[in-house]
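Ops channel
N.P.: pipeline sanity check, posting one input/output pair.
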């Protein structure tokens, strides 16, 4: 987000929220969000790690865990292997999918998270049948929602106020740069 205050341009950005889980048990100690996982460099996960969410981030974390010798399980609501990790560029997706295969990441398609238990998670499949997956840790990689709280607070208080990047909609780095470029051309 860009704001103009007292004649100066200042850049302000908005934080992402914790990857949302519909389940109140997501506060369980063996469960972490992507931001918690990536923010804590010393976080060591157990031998069997379940990534919930088959976007680029979930696939990258699954790869990194499998590469460490862990049993990595990746679940996604997506129903085709072509859709897994397919949020960015197609060459990157293809390379990552090859790595997931090489490191035997267990990819389970068409699973919708219903409940987090003390030792795993329960999912509903496309046929509504429930599947339980046991694991030591869960990383919630279910995407982000925009957070425009700061923008709302500043609205009407600063001369020029613009939303850019993830504050508008969680997206890719290139999109945030493009948003900034468009605003910079206007002001
Ligand atoms: C794990 C992960 C992997 C990703 N991988 C890729 C990838 O491979 N390729 C890709 O293109 N995109 C990727 N993305 C998406 C990319 O990171 C975002 O699209 C991009 O960072 C958005 O830029 P932004 O400036 O809007 O927000 P951010 O990069 O989130 O920057 C926000 C900044 O504002 C600061 N801030 C927050 N609140 C305030 C406040 N009140 N006052 C002052 N400062 C504040 C924050 O500390 C932060 O530094 C990934 C995202 C995640 C979470």
């Amino acid at each position: 987000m860009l704001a103009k205050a007292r004649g100066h341009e200042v850049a302000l950005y908005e934080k992402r929220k914790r990857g949302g889980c519909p389940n109140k048990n997501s506060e369980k100690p063996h469960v972490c969000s992507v931001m918690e996982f990536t923010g804590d460099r010393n976080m060591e996960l157990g031998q069997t790690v379940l990534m919930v969410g088959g976007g680029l981030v979930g696939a990258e974390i699954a790869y990194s865990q499998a590469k460490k010798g862990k049993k990595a399980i990746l679940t996604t609501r997506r129903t085709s292997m072509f859709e897994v990790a397919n949020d960015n560029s197609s060459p990157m997706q293809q390379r990552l999918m090859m790595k997931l295969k090489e490191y035997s990441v267990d990819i389970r398609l068409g699973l919708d998270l219903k409940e987090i238990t003390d030792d795993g998670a329960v999912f509903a499949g496309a046929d509504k049948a429930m599947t339980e997956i046991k694991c030591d840790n869960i990383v919630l990689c279910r995407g982000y929602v925009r957070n425009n709280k700061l923008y709302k607070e500043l609205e009407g208080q600063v001369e020029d106020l613009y939303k850019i990047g993830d504050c508008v909609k969680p997206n890719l780095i290139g999109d945030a740069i493009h948003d900034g470029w468009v605003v910079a051309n206007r002001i």
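N.P.: looks fine end to end. The longest helix spans residues 173-186.
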